Amino acid sequence: MKAELIKESINLFVEKGFSATSIQDIVDKLGVTKGSFYYHFKSKEALLMHIHLSYIDDLLKRQKTILETEKEARGKLVKVVELLIHDIEKQGALGRVYYREIRHLTPENATTIREKRAEFRDRIESIITEGIENGEFRKNLEAKMITFAILGITNWSYQWFNPNGDLSVRELADMYTDFILHGIQSKES
Amino acid sequence: MKAELIKESINLFVEKGFSATSIQDIVDKLGVTKGSFYYHFKSKEALLMHIHLSYIDDLLKRQKTILETEKEARGKLVKVVELLIHDIEKQGALGRVYYREIRHLTPENATTIREKRAEFRDRIESIITEGIENGEFRKNLEAKMITFAILGITNWSYQWFNPNGDLSVRELADMYTDFILHGIQSKES
User: Fold this and answer.
1) In Gene Ontology terms, what is one molecular function of this protein (chains A, B) (predicted)?
2) Same domain, residue pair A113 and A177
């Protein structure tokens, strides 16, 4: 039941927004009582925090594996971009809630999530810095700003990309890693 | 009074979200009555539509001027990216409402805005196509996907960029046009 509650909530949050969705709306979709909801989550905000935490913890875990596996900055960056883009297929609705509804978390919970997001971002920044220092990437880049540009490209794709359309996630990921690498690679590499 | 109503509403929508902000909240901020609100807007949604329309109509107008003034694809693209990034300084909060709250418009109004957004996007796509055809940009680019990538970079900057921080909008715009041009330029150009 917990998984169904999460799934239906995500769909409703995407469709109507977090504020406009009531616990009653969620349980009505599943034909269960509010008791079932409160058995799993103490509030609508607790559910939203659960969604945020599971999303970012999973990304951080998979990012860590990439950093431990790939040797070059270029390879690390490609895999992290692929990780984010491939997620659209499985996690599209979840991603939209994650990017849009953080302001409805309690201040403490929002801080926790922001710190984890910053960790994910800092690790990308470290990849860029590493690439600049070892000559894979151009010398005149600002690693922090390039990191935000990359996250802009990948995060925005959650808003418009339709994985059931003409283009596959694979093709999108290839196109975007190609664009990003051309944008930052040094001529020699 | 209309301008003040719009300004306070935008601040409240950014802070609390559209759904969680009441007309009462808006008029309380200004110390006026609900009558003042209804004199200018027939509903909270009508105000939201006003915000969306004025934002996109202004962007379309300025984009048109750029297209009529610049000769090369490269110059057109740089100016459009600058237009979007420079707007953060003046229009940051407005931009965040614009990107986030479109789902709270009526279906007809949302369609009107989506059509205008599509026009803005299509014009960028035409610049990319033009550049591919005349050899300024690489041959193997998909103009549509590159357009979304560029909009991802600029739109995302509304979420994180602080115009009062260490980096000026000018520097950010230069960095991003440089990154984008490296990403798409043909070697010869």
Assistant:
1) DNA binding
2) yes
Supply the pLDDT for residue A92.
78
Using the beta-carbon criterion (under 8 Å), do A149 and B151 form an inter-chain contact?
no
Q: Are A145 and B184 inside 8 Å of each other by CB?
A: no
**CATH of residue B66:** 1.10.357.10
d(CA B123, CA B68): 12
- Residue B156 to residue A152, Cβ atoms within 8 A: yes
Residues of chain B with pLDDT under 70: 188-189
Q: Which of B179, B16, B5 is nearest to B96 (CA)?
A: B16
Q: Give the pLDDT confidence of B88-139 residue by residue, as tens digits.
A: 877 778 888 888 888 899 999 999 999 999 999 999 999 999 999 999 999 9
Supply the pLDDT for residue A189. Answer: 53
* Contact of B179 with A153, CB cutoff 8 Å: no
**Same domain, yes or no, for B88 and B155?**
yes
The closest alpha carbon to A150, from B158, B156, B168, belongs to B156
Same domain, B81 and B96: yes
Which of B155, B145, B143, B35 is CA-nearest to residue B102? B155
DSSP bridge partners of A137:
A185
**In-domain check, residue B85:** yes
Is B160 in Cβ contact with A156 (below 8 Å)? no
Taking an 8 Å cut-off on Cβ atoms, the answer to whether A148 and B160 are in contact is: yes
Asked if the interface predicted TM-score (ipTM) of this complex is over 0.90, the answer is: no
The answer on A160 and A67 residing in a single domain is yes
Band (A98; pLDDT cuts 50, 70, 90): confident
Q: Are residues A134 and A58 in the same domain?
A: yes
Residues A108, A65 within the same domain: yes
Domain that residue B167 falls in: 45-184
Q: Return the amino acid letter for B105.
A: L
Closest chain B C-alpha to A99 CA, distance in angstroms: 10
Q: Which parts of A53-120 are beta strand (E)? A: none
Q: Is residue A189 part of a domain?
A: no
Number of domains comprising chain B = 2
Do B35 and B72 lie in one domain? The reply is no
- Option in B16, B152, B175 nearest A145 (CB): B175
Which residue type occupies B35? Answer: G
- The answer to whether residue B189 is domain-embedded is no
Binary contact (A182, B138; C-beta < 8 A) = yes
What residues in chain A have their Cβ under 8 A from chain B's Cβ atoms? 15-20, 100, 103-104, 138, 141-142, 145-146, 148-149, 151-157, 160-161, 167, 172, 175-176, 179-180, 182-184
Out of A19, A138, A157, closest to residue B17 by CB? A19
Q: Which residues of A touch B161 (CB under 8 A)?
A: 148
